[in-house]
Design goal:
Blueprint lengths: L1 E2 L13 E10 L6 H10 L12 E10 L2 E10 L9 H5 L4 E4 L7 H8 L15 H11 L11 H5 L19
Parallel strand pairs: 2-4, 2-5
Antiparallel strand pairs: 1-2, 3-4
Length: 174
């Protein structure tokens, strides 16, 4: 966390804390991972999005009261040929978003059974996209400094083999 106390042009104080978290998007090929993150980060939607090769990295911040949550977002490729690379991208992540085709509604039951945050989104219409990232930002601990590459990132990582929290949220206009 970095503390700062500067005033915005309108006289409102800016967030006093900045927390940084590594977040990964996981899911099969062509389910909309890149579309979801591009809608959140750039406010864009492309009907014909090219497949991700390996992974893509983007950043975006969310404002929560006196805290700015900065997401370092890794959008992983879903094609089978890239599955062996996935652990390299999600290692040390504090949150993961599992993106899937909504015709597979087993996800709702799985989320309920495992106390996971569940939210349907649409990158095309922007439905719940910002709400997804805001909900994630609210769930993440903000009391300790976060360093995705350091010891804190490794000890708080997403464990895909056991119960893990899947979260989702909204951004302030930056």
């Amino acid at each position: 966390m970095t503390s700062r106390s500067t005033a915005r042009p309108n006289g409102q104080p800016q967030a006093s804390k900045i927390c940084q978290f590594k977040l990964v998007l996981l899911g099969e090929s062509a389910v909309g991972k890149s579309s979801l993150v591009l809608r959140f980060v750039k406010g864009q939607f492309h009907e014909y999005q090219e497949s991700t090769i390996g992974a893509a990295f983007l950043t975006q911040s969310v404002c929560l009261d006196d805290t700015t949550v900065k997401f370092e977002i890794w959008d992983t490729a879903g094609q089978e040929r890239y599955h062996s690379l996935a652990p390299m991208y999600y290692r040390g992540a504090q949150a993961a978003i599992v993106v899937y085709d909504i015709t597979n509604q087993e996800a709702q039951a799985y989320a309920d059974d495992n106390s996971l945050l569940f939210m349907e989104t649409s990158a095309k219409t922007a439905m719940n996209v910002n709400d997804l990232f805001l909900a994630i930002a609210k769930k993440l601990p903000k009391s300790e400094p976060q360093n995705p590459g350091g010891a804190a990132g490794r000890s708080r990582g997403v464990d895909l083999h056991e119960q893990s929290q899947q979260n989702k949220s909204q951004c302030c206009s930056n």
